[in-house]
Amino acid sequence: ERMRYFFKRNHQGQVTERDLAEFLELSLPRVSQLLRKHFHKSFSSMLNDCRLEFAENALINSENSIESIAKLSGFGSAAYFYRQFMAKHKMTPTAFRRKKRKSHRRSASI
User: How confident is the model at residue 101 (pLDDT cuts 50, 70, 90)?
Assistant: First the structure.
């Protein structure tokens, strides 16, 4: 739970595995081991997932531009955000936003 809290609290900035280790008061190898054991992911993969989750919610619930959402999510550039988003969703952030809003409107009217 403390790991999840760390990622949710820090995903928007420049954060390293060393920062997580210091937060947990553990060694770097131990942090890596725990990430693999409990989440089956690396630090960068966990951070990326947290950033994408934040971006997904922002795409659905805000009018912010894609570039703004990329920045607010903690991605270094909009281009990197697009690549990561496409890899996960197989669609652009704009298409995701349209699709989710359309399905949300449909379910709200039922």
Answer: confident
